[in-house]
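Appendix B. Raw example, untouched.
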Amino acid sequence: MAQDTAQDTARDTAQDIALRTAQDATGNTPQDLAGTLPLHGVHVPLVTPYARTGEIAAGALEALAHEVLDAGATGIVALGTTGETACLDEAERDLVTDVCARVCGERGAVLTVGAGAAGTRAAEASLARLVQWPQVGAALVAVPPFVRPSAAGVAAHFERLAGVSPVPLIVYHVPYRTGQPLDAATLRSLGALPGVVGVKYSSGGLDQDAVELLGDRPAGFHVLAGDDVYLSPMLALGASGGIMASAHLATERFAELAAAWRAGDVLRARALGHALAGLSAAVFAEPNPAVVKGVLHAQGRIPTPDVRLPLLPASKAAVAAVLERLAALRGAFSA
């Protein structure tokens, strides 16, 4: 009984904090701000670079953030799957957020931060912590993994979170990781919730639900491609942009692809899309983010190619294959 009371108090405190701080200096709420949040274009879910000592290489992380923004990325994502968030402790997650918030504050870029949990109470507390970083524009929140709630349970989960979050929410729909597939109707109902501004759509393919969702989106609801290989066809069907691990590499070409589809430059977009799909397939030949980190290290952009267990470093062959793709891309699509 005492433990339940303590949990209820902690939950209520998290909700109170979020509600009290869910307004900016002008009195706007996340729901008001959602309509002006620029979610078009390419957002890069940054890797977490490690020094040879195993600690986070904060300087390399900051440099990466500036590099991708210089090359045309609309924003960055901190603490995504590509950032090995599950392998970081709380202090390390805070350090990553500190660095990314500082860069996005300086650059006026969109910062999305991964948050949430399998349980709704824990997810509320995770979101409430984001008030420490006023630069955060949105939270990327996965559909509850492992517990496999009903579609109605998922809807109730996000309705509760949207009501207390200090920032707008982007639903992370990734059924091959969560074990929870959602159809277009369910995603559309989530998109109609005040405070839910988008979905990172990562179904593992370009399926019928993606087509239906893109054909009838709620007003102000952005669909962001989450599977790198399918970025171009998703953009062609009306996606606002994408969250792309592959866009650490050839960032300017990914940004150009998004711009080409928006401008209706079909011939350029189609050719570039095919080339970038090939690059992305090579990047994901081994578990993410091992290959990305191997290539970034080979380019001298991060101090080590290291990932944390249970991930293993990329093979030399996988890194070489991506480097070859990048060379071919430079030759075929000059700036």
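End of appendix B.
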